[in-house]
């Protein structure tokens, strides 16, 4: 699963989907929605984690940023609660405050699933940093990180099984189905990274991004709709809204990963290129059939040279330029705009009243950094 | 999770709980119950696995022994269906044929959870053989084995979420809770294996075995009871029955792992000792305070020497003798008898009619190899 890279709305990169009409009020609204979601879901999450047996609890609390590795309290952020906020906003949009309040457990369950996948993905990808801290497997070992992830998945589905709401069984089935899609997405990602760049198609890269990133955002929206007693068509439309917004997010995240400001993203620009990641703009460039694509393929075939800083800088500049000249950046930005347009269509289908759809719109614009 | 080592009732080791009254008819009954459970649950399992995305499906089918690594059909056994048989037998004992038929999905869910833990445990323990075949991680890599395990857990809980039965939410919550206990048990096991032998207590070894092996057998029985509409007290008693029978099984399995016939167990006798495993008879011996315990501690402190067959044989003989002289074998057999007696008490509490309890009794005796 990809974590959102921005840490706050302040100082966000002005890059985004071209041609966006910016509404300053929305930024505040999304921030408020996220803060509210965090404040309301955290007690449910903390109570659920507190019910785990000692060692599993300790690893989970470390992962969430609530404790240091030695068990002392920490004040680190546990992420931005985008997914819980989407559950609550969907329930609110289609069912009002009552549905919103009823969907708190579902919001916590989605956040638990997200964090279970982060724990496991970090083990598989050998990622050493998460939310500016060493990943759980580097601190507790692979086995404990795998076990803590397993326990969080079980906890998520237990929360829904214990929820007396009539939507709970449908929500649980949908969340379990989403976990299976997330697994398939992570499998596709790791399998693609092992293949030669010229063997990877743009369609499969988009499908992978949808499974890995879009699926859980879509599921979050669908769960909120289920708790609001929405119709099948509304649930489907909100799922599609979340998926398309998730894809737009991933496209923009990949663009920022290449051209963005490292001070703002928390990740050095070019890290994806140095790792020869087959991100969406790169695959679009590689499959463009242009002379720059041939140049890029040759550059990507050579592993990144570490150590010589000057050489490293030149290598990354050459790759960045080739991706841009091959149209990777333009394609990604146009695709992101297209995905956001589709997301808006789906949102309008599920929630025709613009006032009611406001919260979901703000959150979608927040994740895709369309506001300044 | 520990797999049962016997492959069939025929040719089973006569070792078992001392003082057992053997009833020849039961062997047949247990075998029939297991065969019936396999035949009835397999279609549900296969349909569930068939719903997985391609790559996850392939790994799961390999793991279950239904396919070779290249995707061609295989006829390997997927285990003995002890846990599904316990679900069905419990439902039948307390609710008759209707409850038994209604609990099929729950039986499949328990089997999926069992197999998810096997996939993950094999990754963590670096075990290379499972059911006489290379483990999934050795064939598909760690990442795919972890992902397939994650997907099987989700599939198990989805089966229950989609089950319209009124017991399904309670069953799902209980199964999710059991997964958390299994994770804690596996954590305790891996943590104990890293510690010095003299630091491990018998109580924590028994607690670990209960969490790792007893919990899922207990959960299987509890789920069957829930589908039969049993009272809380009956559900608790059947859970305790399964747990105690699971502990008895583990004790006997550990005894056979040291003194058993390798041709019958599928695992060479002494493998646990060669790996310096802190199995129940070994910890009982180490904590006995006898001179043989001191001798055993010194032998266990030296890693097992590989290569020199003569030396290896002598090393294992010396350790085996020390465990026996320190009372590890007698203790384990007495404990197993005690646990089986407790299991029988719990069974009588939940199902007072001996006729109705017959199936569960046969299965408990089968797993602990009390019949010949």
From TrEMBL, chains A, B:
GO terms for molecular function: transferase activity. This is Family 2 encapsulin nanocompartment cargo protein polyprenyl transferase. Residues 1-27 are annotated as: Disordered. The keyword Membrane does not apply. PROSITE patterns: POLYPRENYL_SYNTHASE_1 (PS00723). InterPro entries: Isoprenoid_synthase_dom_sf, Polyprenyl_synt, Polyprenyl_synt_CS. Belongs to the FPP/GGPP synthase family. PANTHER family: GERANYLGERANYL DIPHOSPHATE SYNTHASE, GERANYLGERANYL PYROPHOSPHATE SYNTHASE. Pfam families: polyprenyl_synt. It comes from the Bacteria. It comes from Streptomyces thermospinosisporus. Residues 1-11 have a biased composition (Polar residues). Keywords: Magnesium, Metal-binding, Transferase. The keyword Magnesium applies.
